[in-house]
Amino acid sequence: MAKNPKEFQQLLEDLKNNTSNPRIQDGKVDLFLTGLDDTDIEELCKVLESNTTIEELNLSGNNIGTKGAKTLARTLGRKVGKGIEHIKTLKIYGNHIGSEGTEAIAKAFFKSEKIEELNLGGNNIFTNSTGSCNKGIKALGQLLLSNVSLTCLSLHDCDIPYKGINPIAESLSSNGSLQELNIEGNRSIGPEGVKKITETLKNNRNLSALEYIILGETCESDEQTEHKEAIKQLAEAKPKLKVDYLNINVILNNPDTKKKIDFYKLVQDDTPKRGNVAEKIAALKAKKLAALEAKKLAESQTPQPDTAQQGILRPHHRL
Length: 319
Description:
Layout lengths: L4 H13 L6 E2 L2 E3 L7 H11 L7 E3 L7 H11 L12 E3 L6 H11 L8 E3 L15 H12 L5 E3 L11 H6 L8 E3 L7 H13 L9 E3 L9 H14 L4 E3 L3 H5 L4 H8 L12 H25 L18
Parallel strand pairs: 2-3, 3-4, 4-5, 5-6, 6-7, 7-8, 8-9
Antiparallel strand pairs: 1-2
Helix pairs in contact: 1-2, 2-3, 3-4, 4-5, 7-8
């Protein structure tokens, strides 16, 4: 259930009547960290069907499971005039949609001519322990093969193994629209996964529209040397491709950290417009660096409790 049921019901009413609401701005609905579950998604979808002005939907950081994802997918995939086919951006990172939920959402966008940005990061997309490709990953590969409008796909922190990246890598051979691919935080992709992407791009230099690929934290610590070599080969295969493999934890332990933070702070616009991916990536890094630096400073000034429960909180809010 939504954290604030009264606020959620008011939002639904405002969506119905196209009236103003703090969470509805310029065609965007922002329901980030509002505690939504599968039942709330059912209510939301019923209202969105009759609203043709919403182009961006942010459902990130909630409790949406496979059922909620399928409900959303059914609404997204309905015929023109009976669904929310006008959605250009869908952010559903940091939920629990699983492989089946991923499959349903991917299929909903197969023939969409509107969707431009899809963020599924921080979900348990790859739930197959055998390491073989599951339905969710395969559907995402098919999405890239069939869709001609998607320009940005984020699959960060989804526990994707190196075999799991194959459908994504192979689809790049025929996709002419994807400009940005974020697979950051999937440590098991490793050098072999990067090599697979390199192999595809080598054979399709002219067709691929890919401009940015984010590979931070996509290998284990004992694979770093081989991983760097694989990334180097990727850069050589497509010289104009911007490869981002920045590891924030490494930066914070680097003596040049202060200089790097100052550099990222030069980016003033923290919500760059679509199409300027370089600024968006830099702005996100600035936020992430500032947050981690503040946390590091706070920890150094606060006595640590004697507990074994301490751990590192991974940032599942990346875009």
